[in-house]
Write a structure and sequence with these properties.
By secondary structure, the protein is α+β, with helices and mostly antiparallel strands. The chain has five helices and 19 strands. The protein folds into three domains: 47 residues; 123 residues, Jelly Rolls (Sandwich), CATH 2.60.120.1440; 73 residues, Phage tail protein beta-alpha-beta fold. It has a seven-stranded mixed sheet with strand order 1-4-5-7-8-11-12, with no helix packed on it. Strands 2-3-6-9-10-13-14 form a seven-stranded antiparallel sheet, with no helix packed on it.
């Protein structure tokens, strides 16, 4: 009897120890499960969202075309004839590369707006600017706001109403008497004020697939004034023949040729 009673007590104690171990295991499992939501919350709270990919686009106009380009920050660029605009936004940067002519309406932003044109770098926080590249120079007009030319560690600020021209290492800033001589293209207007005929003809040729040609330097040096539509080359040539000692030749191969009379 004593042996049987001892065996029974031993089994009872073993069962109690087994239940305690199960409770301990269960409690540990509960702690692990309870900690899982906290760990997931910590991951969500401290993991930064992935950065959006940069906005990269290229816009072009053909000969005689103009177009408006709206950028991700709300800025708008009006491109003139035969122009190219390459845009890159992202990682705290706003940048555009221009070949041709563009009217920039820049909205305020956390990052400055960078314009790369003709190998020159301009920056602005906000404002309205007309920027143009030519083979031998870069020009910029500030209609509103301040535009800064950055070059070799130095900078030149362009105030509203001022026109900047850069040729090689020379920078010239002046106040034009009539800014529409430079900015009139937006309304389809070419305006000349005592302009060499060669320059006036070059302006018309930017908008036409049938260029006007000048036969010799004497004709190109004549000075002209007046306002014409960008599509008004025939009217322009007609005015030349009545007011200047020139003659006009037209043929299928060379188009319009202006020569001395």
């Amino acid at each position: 009897m004593l042996a049987l009673r001892g065996a029974t007590l031993a089994r009872t104690a073993a069962a109690r120890r087994s239940r305690k171990r199960r409770w301990r295991v269960a409690a540990a499992g509960a702690l692990v499960l309870a900690g899982a939501p906290l760990a997931a919350f910590g991951i969500r709270a401290f993991s930064a969202p992935p950065a959006p990919p940069p906005y990269v686009q290229t816009f072009r106009t053909g000969i005689g075309q103009q177009t408006d380009v709206t950028l991700p920050d709300g800025s708008v660029v009006t491109l003139d004839t035969a122009s190219t605009l390459e845009v890159r936004f992202g990682a705290g940067a706003r940048a555009a590369k221009l070949d041709g002519q563009g009217w920039f309406r820049i909205t305020p932003g956390a990052a400055p707006f960078q314009i790369h044109a003709g190998g020159r770098d301009f920056t602005a926080r906000e404002g309205v600017f007309d920027v143009r590249t030519d083979a031998d120079r870069v020009r910029a007009f500030a209609a509103a706001g301040h535009l800064t030319l950055e070059s070799d560690g130095s900078s030149v600020a362009l105030a509203p109403g001022r026109l900047l021209a850069v040729r090689d290492a020379d920078v010239v800033i002046r106040t034009p008497e009539d800014p529409t001589n430079f900015t009139g293209w937006r309304t389809g207007l070419l305006q000349f004020d005592d302009t060499p005929l060669a320059e006036a003809v070059a302006e018309f040729n930017r908008y036409s697939r049938r260029p006007i040609r000048i036969a010799d330097g004497r004709v190109g040096a004549l000075r002209v004034s007046g306002a014409f539509r960008t599509t008004g080359a025939p009217a322009f040539v007609g005015a030349l023949t009545t007011g200047f000692p020139v003659r006009v030749q037209r043929d299928a191969r060379d188009g319009i040729v202006i020569a001395a009379r």
